[in-house]
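Minutes, project check-in
Item: structure for the 302-residue chain
Input as provided by the requester:
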Amino acid sequence: MAVLERSYKRFEGVLTPEWSRFLIIPRHAVRDVFRSKLFTAFFALSFIWPLVCAILIYLHHNIEALGIMRIDIRNLLPIDAAFFQNYVITQGTIGFFLAMLVGPQQVSRDLTNNALPLFLCRPFTRSEYVVGKMSIVIILLSTVTWVPGLILFLLQSYLEGWTWFADNIWIASAIFIGSLVWILLLALMSQAISAWVKWLVAARAALLAAFFIPTAFAAVVNEIFQTRWAHIFDLRALIGNVWAGLFGTFVSQTVDDRDGRLLRGVIMSEPPLWASWFMLFLICALCLWLLSRKVRAYEVVK
């Protein structure tokens, strides 16, 4: 545009509020993600287990359907804290694979194509950029974890009555908090790996290895030293202990009966819940530090 024309005018439209500017990133990224038929199919299949859980809840309160199918209500799973904990574990596992498909490609593409200066030269801070990239994973995983979980809880409360709702409202908080902790962990880890590993296949492999290699290491250490304290390095065990603590099923000590005789059993002590929470906090802090080292408007190449 030639300066002599003097046709430049200040933007007179409605400005986007500062608190919601980060949402511009997931608005376009989610649209791009669903262009993949593989991801769309996997995302649709992730709602099968919530549908099965809804059917089980409905059957518990439909005597006619049970009579037609000749099913004893005692043979069905009880709708209690353990039921919703199994739901969170199943959907959390599905959410991990969704995060593995979506997360590792977000920051790496911007770094590879030198697009970060284009983001950060606008009224867009580094924190808003990171939150925007994380919100892609957070939004997608929320739709398959705690959102259907709370709907199932409300369905059970509606069929069972107000008394059940009042007595078990803590289950709803366990569903939300447990799912949110898992989602934040996956979002931070996937973005940190994406920032440091630019090759998409290697980034996905690194995210997969971050969960399964420590599990194997912890299993070997536990077997050698007859303990459960190595679970402090196992991400799967850490989040499992956190979920168990939220749903009231955490067991601090177990008996490992190796020879089939209780007299020769070995008492195994799990790390306390506060240790699991603290380790998850340290992992999230490490991911934020790694992101802060890479998400910059410039890069010094030696």
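Outcome recorded: DSSP finds 14 helices and two strands in the chain.
No further action items on this chain.
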